[in-house]
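Q&A log
Question type: sequence-to-structure
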Amino acid sequence: MRAMPSAAVILMFAAPSLTAEISLKRADDHLQIETDALSVRINTKGYVSGTAAGGFVDKKTGARDLGFGLHIMDFLLAPGVRDDGYMNSKYHGKIAKHYVEGPQICTQAKELTPEIIEGKDFVAVKFHFTFNKPGKGYKAGSTWEQTLVFKPGLRYFFSAERITSVNDVDALFYRIDMPGHIKHKSGDSFEKIWLSYEGEIPYSEFVNDFQHDPRVPGEARRQARSVAGRHDARPGGGERGVVPSARLRLLHRGAAHAPGEGRRKLRCRLHRRLVRLEGGDGARVRPT
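Response status: OK
Response body:
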């Protein structure tokens, strides 16, 4: 078996105070977590995994996420085209990939049983799911685990995931909704998107549908850092920012700059592998 962990962190804007308490209420179809800084809904039935759509609220500003939720889980994929129909949809971009295991957890799991861990100054929520719909040439049985951690005084939460695969797949990856999966009509809910590897992209770029536009890659834009409620979310962009930066690198395992190659060219050449940069020149890169 192969285990593939990943983690996302939304960066803070103020020094935390850990003296406040955390409350957790359980309803039939969701959990409600309240800290001094955040109000967060986590669905346990219906559209599940991560935080619920519009359910991440920053108490300091009253702003909330604009999308379908934060860290919403879909299914497992691998590079290369297979005759499985996955590349037939315009929503999946033009970069070759195929289906490994499903179903799409957020829409088809229907219900996830939470494991609650309450510590002295934190609350953690853990979810588990076993994939049961294999792609062509694969078997079912891989497991997905997600852990969401909340602490008082913080205007962000920690989210980590772990995939344990029953299939031997090179460069296994998965589709997931990050803050860039925004609900909008012709860019009416935001002013701009900021990508760590692209810079600012105005709302006008999203007025018309497109498939894997060379300037805004279809796969990469799902990892966009959004400007929530028309507030600048970048570090230094003002204390109103609600969806802070999470630098995600879309690179293959063992990737490094070729002689004379800049960061932008490297990112264009490589696809969809989350790594941690060990050095500023990218010479030492290891998969997370």
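Response note: Residues 2-190 form one domain.
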